[in-house]
Amino acid sequence: MEYTTKGTCSKKILFEVEGGKVHNVQFVGGCNGNTQGVARLVEGMDVNEAISRMKGIDCNGRGTSCPDQLAKALEQAIQK
Questions:
Q1: Ramachandran bin of 56, using left for φ above 0, alpha for ψ from -120 to 50, beta for the remaining angles
Q2: What is the CA radius of gyration of the chain?
Q3: How crowded is residue 32: how many other Cβ atoms within 10 Å of its Cβ?
Q4: Sheet containing strand 21-29, strands side by side
Q5: Distance between CA atoms of 21 and 75, rounded to whole angstroms?
Q6: Axis-axis angle for helices 66-79, 32-42 (nearest 10)
Q7: What is the mean pLDDT of residues 13-18?
Q8: 13: which strand partners?
Q9: Confidence (pLDDT) at 80
Q10: DSSP secondary structure letters along 14-54
Q11: pTM of the model
Q12: What does DSSP assign to residue 57?
């Protein structure tokens, strides 16, 4: 799946949800070390657990963050 982010340095998130688990998360742009860390931490995690852990995280008062955008992307993916 592909999700275009809003309000973050990263421009896009690529990911898969298989069997209710998050896999192969890649951020396009953003803080490389942080986005790699987030991607590795959620690898194989239950999609609902990942959403609940990341939803609402704020970066510098932007009202969102790369983890929050990933949560939004995952929410959108499981609604389809």
A1: left
A2: 11
A3: 10
A4: 2-4, 10-18, 21-29
A5: 13
A6: 40
A7: 98
A8: 3, 27
A9: 81
A10: EEEEETTEEEEEEEEES-HHHHHHHHHHHTT-BHHHHHHHH
A11: 0.96
A12: -
Amino acid at 52: S
Amino acid 5 reads T
Q: Report residue 36's pLDDT band, with 50, 70 and 90 as the boundaries.
A: very high
Residue 9 reports pLDDT greater than 90: yes
Distance CA 57, CA 67 (A): 7
Q: Cα dihedral sign for 80, 11, 25, 60? A: negative
pLDDT, one tens digit per residue, over 48-67 is 999 999 999 999 999 999 99
